[in-house]
Amino acid sequence: MNGPDLPIHSISDTARWVACFRARESERPDALFRDPYAERLAGERGFQIANTLADGNKHDWAWVARTYLFDKFLLREIREGADLVVNLGAGLDARPYRMQLPPSLHWMEVDLPGIISYKENILANERPVCHLERISLDLSDGQALRTLVTDLDCRAKKIVVLIEGVLIYLSTEEVGSLATDLLAGNHFQSWIIDLASPGQLKLMRRTTGKQLSAAGAAFKFGPPEGPNFFAPHGWDPVDVQGLLKTAAQFKRAPIELLSLLPEPKSASGNYPWTGVCLLKKH
User: Fold this and answer.
1) What are phi and psi for residue 10, nearest 5 degrees?
2) Percentage of the chain exceeding pLDDT 90
3) pLDDT value at position 268?
4) Has residue 35 been placed in a domain?
5) Which conformational region is residue 127 in: left (phi greater than 0), alpha (psi within -120 to 50 degrees), or beta?
6) Is residue 246 part of a domain?
7) Which of 159-163, 197-201, 255-259 has the lowest mean pLDDT?
8) Integer Rg of the chain from CA
9) To 5 degrees, how large is the angle CA 139–CA 11–CA 280?
């Protein structure tokens, strides 16, 4: 099912796909962010995926809005004292290189060995603006993740976790276990995630989802409870921002979607909603 004719061969290919949208946004004179590394990280393969995947270029506004909101929430947490950022499923994110971050900040990237080695090769001659470490780990390995949480908990006073573009590929049980594992770290205080409603999940499964599923990257997680899914696991949603509303604010949203505004405040039901959520420990 994941043969050479498919535009995406594995879940790691989605990181190359997303990087090409950061590269395109960076070329705009009114760019919401600038990522001078995105084009190299995407590589020819990233742009090929965007151009051959069903609807591969259709939702560039959503990727841009997502990146902008993650940046916004992250900078807020750092201003409020976060001294360690843990990026789980970091993919080809270049925030430790492209953002204005305190040099004293510690940043840990966690992902599969293949994506880690690819990224290190591309960025070998670049210098991050803060203390950066990388670790190879499969997020589905619960014991390894719990060991990592215990280790990192001893190394910082206030930890913020980023999980961008990952939860949608996990089952409800896997996300619940992940939330519980992170809660166990006393210094893990906040968590920034992106989330889709059940309605959005259905739409995505009918388009790009078919080819992603064939490559072993099926869309799974879109909880009916929306961000409140995390409350029983110890995490409260304290800020939730929709991608469409954000994209419209900066004139990135397609005209045909503006009729969907105003958006609901959370991802629930059949409304096609996606957004970024800031969660904080009870």
Assistant:
1) -155, 170
2) 75
3) 64
4) no
5) beta
6) yes
7) 255-259
8) 18
9) 45
Looking at the domain assignment, is residue 181 inside a domain?
yes
Cα distance between residue 75 and residue 251, in whole Å:
23
Average confidence score pLDDT of the chain:
91
At residue 225, what are phi and psi to the nearest 5 degrees?
Answer: -80, -10
Q: Are 89 and 15 in contact (CB under 8 A)?
A: no
Task: Count how many domains the chain has.
Answer: 1
pTM reported for the whole predicted model: 0.93
Q: How far apart are CA 279 and CA 276, in angstroms?
A: 10
Q: How far apart are CA 149 and CA 200, in angstroms?
A: 31
Q: Name which residue leads in pLDDT, 278 or 9.
A: 278
DSSP single-letter state for residue 141: -
Q: Which two tokens stand for residue 204?
A: 């995505």
Order of strands, edge to edge, in the sheet holding 235-242?
131-136, 106-111, 84-88, 159-163, 188-196, 274-281, 235-242
Residues 203/272, Cβ–Cβ less than 8 Å: yes
**Is the separation of the CB atoms in 77 and 160 below 8 Å?**
yes
β-pairing verdict for 159-163 and 188-196: parallel
- The burial class, CB within 10 Å (0-12 / 13-18 / 19+), for 27 is exposed
Q: Which of 87, 171, 190, 89 is nearest to 130 (CA)?
A: 87
Instruction: Kindly state whether residue 193 falls inside one of the protein's structural domains.
Output: yes
Q: Where residue 6 falls among pLDDT bands split at 50, 70, 90? A: low
CATH for 147:
3.40.50.150
